[in-house]
């Protein structure tokens, strides 16, 4: 099969190789998916460029999300899955070297879920880690009905899904953004209010929106960069759930102790299986209603995977960047 891989860390143009590699077979408990789309997440490019966890394997096929059709099942897997359209997550995560930047992937059957016919494969590749991560961050500490939830980076891939989940869960949703275009995008996802975090009075705007009380929960895209704002607008005994940070959060303990706050850290590949199953079931129910927004920021051929990675690194995308193997 055609695939993209790297055997050393570094810039996309320098280390990503496009060539033929052996096609995998589905092992026990696995399915093989003929991929039609591969989603590129910021974590994928950081793993390749910065070596978030070092060079974990001698050869790595990047990208963890995707969508396609099951074409083979291993022992112990329902044979009726063959031919089913699916989306998948954690392809190159949690003990797996080979991700979705390829024509095929073999992975545990519980890492795939049905993809409704009304969604394209590119839209299916948007789900995976962004949608699952958003669900976990919004609901890990219980229902949000009647609560005020602040989603920082509400136009990002995870943030936009977090806005949709929080709105669906009955929360009053405030999203921070960096431009008018992103404000429109966040509101389209269900944000009741948007605030440009670059405004000098962003903090006071959020406090005004809560009548001076503050927000109950924050879904945090960058704990270190946003700590000044987040620690100020968070209500006493509030909760921050964070899935990323560009650095160390200075004075985190003091700032959170003064609010008697809870800070939850998460990464999807170590989330308990029960929570994964809960998220996947909720996503399936939501997709059946056909009212979600799944934004494809751009598509690239498999041979152009390096360009896709660079587009993600540019910070100019709005949605998920998708790589598509040749039809």
Order of helical and strand elements: EHEEHEEEEHHEHEHEHEHEHEHEHE
Q: What is the number of helices?
A: 11
How many structural units, i.e. domains? 2
Largest sheet: 7 strands, mixed
The helical percent reads 25-40%
The overall pLDDT average reads: 95
Structure description:
By secondary structure, the protein is of the alpha/beta class. It folds into two domains: 2-127 and 294-324, Alpha-Beta Complex (Quinone Oxidoreductase, Chain A, domain 1); 130-269, NAD(P)-binding Rossmann-like Domain (Rossmann fold, 3-Layer(aba) Sandwich). Helix content is 31%, strand content 26%. The protein contains eleven helices and 15 strands. The mean pLDDT is 95.
Keywords:
327 residues, alpha/beta, Quinone Oxidoreductase, Chain A, domain 1, Rossmann fold, 6-stranded parallel beta sheet, 11 helices
Write the SSE topology.
Layout (H helix, E strand, L loop, with lengths): L1 E4 L6 H4 L1 E4 L9 E11 L1 H8 L15 E9 L11 E4 L15 E5 L3 E3 L6 H4 L3 H12 L8 E4 L5 H12 L3 E6 L2 H9 L4 E4 L5 H8 L5 E6 L2 H11 E9 L9 H7 L3 E4 L7 H16 L7 E6 L3 H10 L5 E5 L3
Parallel strand pairs: 8-9, 8-11, 9-10, 11-12, 12-13, 14-15
Antiparallel strand pairs: 1-2, 3-4, 3-6, 3-15, 4-5, 5-7
Helix pairs in contact: 4-5, 4-10, 7-8
């Amino acid at each position: 099969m055609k695939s993209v891989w790297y055997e050393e860390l570094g810039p996309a143009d320098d280390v990503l190789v496009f060539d033929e590699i052996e096609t995998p077979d589905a092992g026990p408990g696995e399915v093989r998916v003929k991929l039609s789309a591969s989603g590129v997440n910021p974590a994928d490019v950081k793993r390749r460029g910065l070596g978030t966890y070092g060079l974990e394997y001698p050869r790595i096929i990047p990208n963890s999300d995707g969508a396609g059709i099951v074409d083979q099942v291993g022992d112990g897997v329902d044979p009726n899955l063959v031919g089913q359209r699916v989306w998948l997550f954690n392809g190159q995560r949690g003990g797996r070297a080979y991700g979705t930047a390829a024509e095929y992937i073999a992975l545990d059957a519980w890492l795939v879920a049905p993809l409704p016919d009304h969604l394209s494969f590119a839209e299916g590749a948007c789900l995976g880690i962004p949608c699952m991560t958003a669900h976990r961050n919004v609901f890990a500490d219980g229902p949000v009905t009647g609560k005020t939830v602040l989603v920082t980076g509400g136009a990002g891939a995870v943030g936009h899904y977090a806005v949709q989940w929080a709105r669906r869960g009955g929360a009053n949703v405030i999203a921070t953004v960096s431009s008018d275009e992103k404000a429109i995008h966040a509101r389209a996802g269900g944000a009741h209010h948007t605030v440009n975090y670059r405004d000098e009075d962003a903090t006071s705007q959020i406090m005004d929106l809560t009548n001076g009380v503050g927000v109950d929960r924050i879904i945090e895209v960058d704990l270190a960069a946003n700590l000044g704002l987040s620690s100020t607008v968070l209500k006493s005994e509030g909760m921050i759930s964070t899935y990323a940070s560009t650095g160390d959060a200075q004075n985190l303990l003091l700032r959170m102790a003064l609010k008697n706050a809870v800070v939850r850290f998460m990464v999807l590949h170590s989330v308990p299986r029960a929570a994964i199953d809960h998220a996947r079931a909720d996503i399936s129910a939501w997709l059946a209603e056909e009212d979600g927004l799944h934004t494809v920021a751009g598509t690239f051929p498999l041979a152009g995977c390096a360009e896709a990675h660079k587009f993600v690194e540019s910070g100019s995308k709005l949605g998920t960047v998708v790589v598509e193997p040749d039809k």
